[in-house]
Specification:
heterodimer, B: mainly alpha, globular
Chain lengths: 1022, 482
């Protein structure tokens, strides 16, 4: 459609030529598309006509009902748009700096769901909770819709005029220009920034990651002569030793690492094998929860443990160990000896990772990897990762410059330093003094609120861009929707300010033509390379490996020995799986996502070990003041509710970052409003407290651990919204006879037991036939699921994927406190053991029982059994007796207690049109994504082919980075799910009741010796 | 017409009343102005009703979220109240139908108010299943009515559908039975009024009653038949209510003992409620001559019996659970007694099993200042019995991850109070508008007309034995009226 650029579709007379002033206003929300090649944009140019104008006109009119409109069908059907048909566009996730590939599911011209791109070389199909939820950010009505100047809405012309004028002045006066950004994955943008800064005498680009891995890069500078972040290959590692690196949860690239890690623990090989993973950590992380051997150490002991492990490895390698070894530390020698042996035996197939921001320890980790010959195999420095490029030393230098008022222009891209730096408020003052402070933030956060210019960038789903998470693996962003506001890609802004206006599309394409295309071997012409890359969403090209030097043992240094007074604690600031550094703090899906370990939503808190809490006489919900030494006496102490976290070291307090930002004030009215509703936000009107003032700079790196923190009780209480109140499968101790006994809900075993079991003849009991013939013959398909608990890390991406797919409401903190969260898919988390707890993550969703207890009790037949084994829920028949939920042994049914908020019309565009939005008073639950089953059936029928195994992927399965979930037809003996149903590890939850659940679980296997001392002895952590 | 009367019969009504006295005494309260005591009671009850009405209105307008229920405890105070009120109703039916068939003539003094209580209690009960629905305006979907939705019908496997039938039937029969018994008395009321609206209304409602032998004959046949029809309901309604739980799979609900246990509990609570009401009515309306210590004594013994049955049921539940060695079953019961809701279990056992043991003593039974609080405590205990069954079974079921607590909201409490408000408002109105004692039946147990009256024996009153009943034969029961 070559004329697409000029054709304007209008849906009604009022909207088109006969537009009223009101509609005119709303139309102004969407300016004319920027000049872009017609062939690229024609397929989206109809957008204006399709939905948004109407939606925003509605919002603008301030009425809550859709206005009566005349709908006129298209005279000429736009290409690729068939109402009700979904298209998938390959693009890249902008949720964090990992650069995972996604497919944006577009329906009626708007993205409604993000799915992992299974061909993407980094993520290979998975997508994390943040990635799933980033869709909602696109439709956030709080996003800035236009640029701002001095806090007032301005036009781009005005802003550009001002900025260009000032830049010209700076060029004349030789002022320094600083560009402060988070890690930018886009090679195009990086090149453009470089070019832009090159126009100035003193232009520098400073990369600052709020969750910094700067120490790893610094350590490689010392040991390998190159400041780089290696690409860790967990799939190649048979033995993994991790020192406080939460690589399955929040560290560098969790989706990729989870996928790789799970690949090493698949347990489908013969003979059975799985990787061995030891985790040394002070707080309990998602990664620690999966570890075969988890060692609780204080942050101080961690360094010592590393030294001792390294000394042993050096001994095995026959290398002299230059550091002093202190063997008096608390970690048992046997543990380290055993680990050292395992690592040594797996030379070249092992991996040591360290997540501590301490260059000395990182050097030590490099040393161990070097001894273990892991460089080149599991630690790839030839194609290093570019996912974390932060340089804390440069950041510190910038802060000094700012303090001295030496910066003439400051550009802030993808960072919120006023919020996330320890000296935030001072930073705000400094920014105000910078003559040209430009923020690219897409909302008015702490930093952009004080910057004079705000030039909002597009959402990742609105713009062209690219990303190179790992050298040579380049991923493309392509717009899935026309920009919703008058935002502008940073690429374009720089092009304009640099004097060479260029669209983002041209910029990316030109960069690829000049820099990427030559690196591909044997490609004929650029156009076909480009088309192929856009279609696939990525390109893998050759890259010159960075020139590293031989390992420099001289970099090794003694680990500073610190001790903490017994009445003081070490404060560990950590990122939560859903919140990271707080960049998605305004996303309600992520705020309501229970933390995989604590199961708490809508808050951060100070985690204490049970023993520490007992010693201080604290109970969960008591508010304490977390006070540091006099160092920052000026900054106010942090007041936080406490949370009792089993498995945590007794000498630490763990507090999550990313909370308490200004943006969370919007959640004050997220929940239903009624007479006895309690506030959804804290006393200060925000969600949680910002812990960043307690960060510190030390040794040139941003420190997340702070020693010598004391605790003072305040006498106040704060309720935490936890979705799980009883924390273990052990029955509470105050119940006589049974107290302390274990419920057999989840099965777990160890690798040696499993191997021994595999040798014996099948011990699987033949499924006893019931007294009566089965009610349901299932002559066609029989849908079923298998969930591998060994693979599941509890990362909760399935929970958000389900929420996005099935239009699940957000209910707010108060409703979660009242145990009314709506998640259809939840991850139950149980502890076992006493001090050093083991953790089981147990994904729980409707089990689609063959003998479903819910079906018989519904008086109005609102829940019935399908011929294919689904337990269907008919919303418009439901009257809401809640008997089905009472009678559900798995408690997977969710009730609409209120009419939950659906008033944000823009946000409603994220709703999946295939799934009914439920009103109040009806029950809802998982139906194995029946809409996807039906879509596949229609497709299959259209092509006159049977539904192939794997053709239907439920939303949770699709998103799972560990591929723990398999869905399919049990009646098809060749399907994966049918094969897994025969697995030795298979069990059904509460099978003994003959509910016949359709979800088969595969037992959790830990790679440790024997039946193991753990698990049987029990303690109630509830 | 009987040639002799039962020894016990003569002492049923004290004060040597003549039929005229009876008519005057009973109608007195209808014809005069309400006493300040009545007004006081009515205002309190009506305020509670308004409070409950407001709470229900708010809940229906806003959502079930205004209750304290959650994803695990889906039922709580609402269904507790439902079962409680249904249970209360049972005593009325027991007294009016079963005791009638068993020729327990002491029932005549209390059957009218007991039946009224049944109807009002069923009305209170009926409100709860309706308002506890997520979408109360769709409540009619629970009935299998002809519709245009193709083959869509109700789910006959669901106990909630059985419930809808059971309660519907129960209410209908109770109402008809009560109304039928009222007809002769309404005629009396009509005859005492000369004109005006009340006269017209009474004329209409008494269906042209003329007191002829034929009228009496047919009346009694119908009454007997209806009593026969109502009798199985005493057993069936609460049995079906118990199936709401017993057919569920929740440990603590899934028990075969539930039907007899629930029926006994229902009669227990119902008799306690009759006792409470009758003691108040007796005092405030000066009916001491009609509702004597003997009546109260008999009802106390009935309480003692049903308390025993209920107590055995509690013990049996525990025994079954422990004997089953089903871990979930065992836990449900131990958790019931020792878990977070142990206090409610304590209230239940002490009020329902321990306190009624006092009734073994005649002195207690004859001391109304003892009987009255006991009757109230039993009702408290029986309310908590249902609460214990519903909430403690649900709140910690199979998967510990889903265990929750439950705390009622003020809205729920208001609705609980409102149901009492509704009940007492209706009952107080009934006291003012209709004869609280079945005059025609009471006249039947007066000595008047029984020529061969025997003196009251010195032995204490007792229930007649089966042999005695057989000896008396079928014809004696309602003879001698006219």
């Amino acid at each position: 459609m070559a004329e697409g650029k000029t054709t304007k579709y209008w849906k009604s007379w009022k909207e088109g030529p006969g537009a009223s002033p009101l509609v005119q206003i709303s139309r102004d929300e969407f300016p004319e598309p920027l000049d872009r090649p017609a062939e690229q944009f024609s397929r989206r140019s109809f957008l204006k006509a399709v939905g948004f104008t109407a939606a925003v006109a509605t919002a603008g009119a301030g009425c809550s009902h859709a206005p009566v409109e005349k709908a006129i069908p298209y005279l000429i059907q736009p290409e690729e748009i068939i109402p009700g048909v979904s298209y998938f566009y390959a693009t890249t996730c902008g949720g964090c700096s990992a650069g995972c590939g996604v497919l944006a599911k577009n329906r009626d011209s708007r993205p409604i769901k993000l799915e992992g791109n299974s061909e993407h070389p980094i993520s290979r199909g998975g997508l994390c909770a943040i990635g799933q939820a980033s869709l909602l950010d696109l439709y956030d009505s709080h996003r800035l819709k236009e640029p701002r100047l001095d806090g007032k809405v301005a036009s781009w012309e005005e802003v550009d005029r001002e900025i260009i004028a000032r830049l010209a002045e700076i060029r004349k006066s030789v002022g320094s220009v600083r560009f402060l950004s988070g890690t930018i994955l886009s090679p195009t943008l990086n090149a453009q920034i470089k070019k832009f800064l090159g126009q100035f005498n003193d232009g520098r680009h400073i990369v600052y990651d709020a969750l910094s891995s700067s120490a790893i890069l610094d350590a490689h500078q010392e040991t390998h002569g190159q400041r780089l972040l290696p690409h860790f290959r967990f799939d190649k590692a048979d033995v993994i030793a991790s020192f406080d690196a939460d690589f399955l949860g929040t560290w560098i690239s969790p989706v990729e690492f989870t996928r790789d890690y799970a690949a090493g623990r698949r347990l489908d090989t013969k003979p059975l094998r799985m990787s061995y993973h030891a985790q040394f950590e002070s707080r309990l992380s998602v990664t620690g929860a999966k570890a075969d051997r988890r060692v609780r150490v204080s942050p101080q002991e961690l360094g010592e443990s590393m030294v001792r492990l390294a000394s042993r490895l050096a001994r095995f390698a026959g290398a002299p160990f230059p550091l002093t070894v202190n063997d008096s530390a608390s970690v048992q020698d046997a543990v380290l000896e055993d680990l050292a042996k395992k690592l040594w035996q797996a030379r070249g197939r092992s991996l040591v990772v360290c997540g501590v921001q301490d260059v000395g320890l990182q050097v030590l980790a490099n040393y161990m990897n070097e001894l273990l010959e892991n460089y080149g195999s599991t630690v790839d420095v030839a194609r290093p990762s570019l996912q974390k490029g932060g340089n804390d030393r440069e950041l510190q230098a910038l802060l000094d410059e700012l303090k001295g008022g030496k910066v003439a222009a400051l550009f802030l891209y993808g960072v919120n330093p006023v919020y996330s730096l320890p000296h935030g408020p001072q930073f705000a003052e400094w920014i105000k003094q910078v003559p040209l402070a430009v923020s690219f933030a897409d909302r008015l956060d702490e930093t952009s609120a004080v910057a004079r210019f705000v030039c909002p960038d597009h959402h990742a789903l609105e713009s062209w861009s690219d990303a190179e998470p790992v050298l040579g693996h380049i991923s493309l962003f392509q717009p899935a929707i026309h920009p919703l506001g008058r935002t502008r890609a940073a690429l374009e802004s720089f092009a304009i300010w640099g004097g060479q206006p260029k669209t983002a599309y041209d910029a990316v394409r030109d960069y690829w033509r000049e820099n990427i295309f030559p690196r591909i071997r044997g490609a004929a012409d650029f156009q076909s390379f480009w088309d192929r890359s856009v279609e696939a969403g990525f390109a893998v090209v050759s890259a010159d490996p960075p020139k590293t030097t031989k390992f420099r043992t001289t970099a090794l240094r003694d680990v500073a020995k610190t001790t903490v007074a017994s009445d003081k604690f070490s404060l560990v600031l950590y990122p939560k799986v859903a919140m990271l550094d707080g960049r998605h703090t305004e996303n309600p899906w992520l705020q309501e996502l229970p933390d995989p370990i604590s199961k708490v939503t809508w808050d951060n808190y100070a985690c204490f070990s049970p023993r520490a809490a007992q010693r201080l006489g604290l109970e969960e919900g008591d508010v304490v003041r977390v006070e540091t030494d006099a160092q920052i006496g000026s900054s106010p102490a942090l007041e936080l509710p406490i949370f009792i976290q089993p498995g945590q070291h007794d000498q630490i307090i763990a507090v999550a970052l990313g909370y308490g930002s200004k943006g969370t004030e919007r959640f004050s009215d997220i929940g239903p409003k009624w007479l006895f509703a309690r506030p959804d936000v804290g006393e200060d009107g925000r969600i949680g407290k910002n812990a960043s003032p307690l960060l510190s700079f030390e040794d040139g790196t941003l420190q997340y651990i702070r020693e010598g923190v004391s605790i003072r009780k305040t006498g106040k209480r704060h309720t935490l919204a936890s979705t799980q109140t009883h924390q273990s499968l052990t029955l509470p101790g105050n119940v006589p006879l049974l107290g302390g006994k274990q419920r057999e809900i989840v099965r777990e075993t160890t690798l040696p037991v499993l191997v021994a079991d595999a040798k014996s003849p099948s011990s699987e009991p033949s499924k006893a036939n019931g007294l009566w013939p089965p009610d349901h013959p299932y002559t066609g398909h029989k849908w079923a699921m298998a969930i591998d608990l060994t693979a599941c890390t509890g990362c909760s991406s399935c929970v958000v994927a389900c929420q996005a797919e099935n239009n699940i409401s957000v209910v707010g903190k108060d409703e979660v406190v009242r145990h009314r969260e709506m998640h259809w898919m939840r991850i139950d988390r149980y502890y076992s053991g006493q001090e050093d707890v083991d953790v089981v993550h147990h994904p729980m969703l409707c089990q689609q029982c063959d003998n479903a207890p819910c079906e018989t009790v519904c008086p109005v037949l609102a829940t019935v059994h399908s011929a294919e084994g689904l337990n269907q829920q008919i919303y418009n028949r439901c009257v809401g007796t809640r008997y089905c939920a009472n009678n559900c042994p798995y408690k997977t049914r969710r009730f609409n207690w209120f009419n939950y908020m659906r008033e944000d019309h823009l946000q409603n565009l994220a709703l999946n049109p295939d799934v009914t939005v439920r009103s109040r008073g009806v029950m809802e639950k998982c139906t194995f994504c029946v809409q996807r089953i039906e879509a596949a059936r229609i497709e299959a029928r259209r092509h006159d082919k049977p539904i192939a195994d794997g053709q239907i992927q439920t939303a949770c399965q699709q998103s799972c980075p560990a591929q723990a979930i398999v869905f399919g037809d049990l009646n098809d003996p060749s399907s994966r799910v049918a094969k897994l149903a025969q697995d030795r590890r298979r069990f059904g939850v509460l099978e003994e009741f003959n509910f016949r659940p359709s979800v088969n679980y595969l037992a959790l296997v830990r790679n440790r010796e024997g039946a193991e001392e753990k698990g049987k002895e029990s303690q109630n952590h509830g | 017409m009987a040639d002799f009367v039962l020894p016990a019969q003569q002492s049923l009504i004290a004060g040597n009343k003549t039929p005229a006295d009876v008519t005057r005494d009973i109608c007195h309260s209808l014809e005069g102005r309400p006493t300040p005591l009545w007004w006081g009671g009515f205002l309190v009850a009506f305020s509670l009703l308004l409070l409950g009405g407001a709470a229900v209105t708010y809940e229906v307008a806003t959502g079930i979220g205004t209750w304290g229920v959650n994803r695990t405890v889906g039922w709580a105070v609402g269904i507790t109240c439902f079962v409680f009120w249904i249970g209360i109703g049972h005593a009325g039916t027991l007294i009016s139908a079963i005791l009638f068939l068993l020729r327990q003539r002491w029932r005549t003094s209390v059957n009218r108010s007991a039946e009224a209580m049944t109807i009002f209690a069923v009305m209170c009960a009926g409100v709860f299943p309706m308002i506890h629905l997520g979408r109360p305006w769709m409540a009619y979907w629970l009935f299998p009515y002809p519709n245009t939705r193709g083959s869509l019908w109700v789910n006959f496997r669901s106990p909630l559908v059985w419930d809808a039938f059971a309660i519907g039937t129960y209410f209908t029969i109770s109402l008809v039975f009560w109304y039928l018994g009222l007809i002769p008395d309404l005629a009396t009321v009509r005859d005492r009024l000369c004109c005006g609206f009340r006269h017209k209304l009474a004329s209409l409602l008494s269906l042209g009653w003329n007191g002829s032998f034929r009228t009496w004959h047919r009346y009694e046949s119908v009454y007997l038949m209806l009593a026969g029809l109502a009798t199985p309901l005493v057993l069936s309604v609460h049995t079906i209510v118990s199936w709401d739980f017993a057919t569920g799979i929740i440990p603590g609900w899934h028990a075969t003992i539930f039907p007899p246990y629930f029926v006994a509990g229902a009669i227990f609570s119902g008799v306690a409620m009759v006792l409470t009401l009758v003691l108040v009515a007796r005092k405030t309306m000066r009916l001491e001559d009609y509702i004597t210590i003997r009546h109260i004594d008999v009802m106390c013994k009935l309480l003692l019996l049903t308390s025993g049955i209920v107590g055995i049921a509690y013990a049996t539940e525990f025994f079954t659970a422990l004997y089953s060695t089903g871990p979930f079953e065992e836990f449900a019961f131990l958790n019931r007694a020792f878990g977070p809701f142990g206090w409610s279990y304590g209230i239940m056992v002490s009020c329902n099993v321990l306190v009624p043991q006092l009734l073994w003593f005649r002195k207690v039974r004859s001391n109304l200042w003892m009987v009255f609080p006991i009757s109230i405590l039993i009702n408290v205990g029986m309310w908590f019995e249902r609460f214990v069954i519903i909430v403690t079974s649900l709140h910690r079921d199979f998967l510990p991850s889903s265990w929750t607590n439950y705390r009622p909201t003020p809205i729920e409490i208001s609705m609980l109070l409102g149901s009492f408000g509704l009940f007492f408002t209706l009952f107080l109105l009934f006291c003012r508008l209709l004869p609280v004692v079945a005059m025609a039946e009471v006249k039947g147990v007066l000595h008047v007309g029984h020529e061969r009256r025997v003196e009251l024996p010195a032995t204490p009153p007792s229930f007649p034995s089966v042999e005695e009943l057989e000896a008396v034969g079928a014809g004696t029961a309602r003879g001698g009226l006219g």
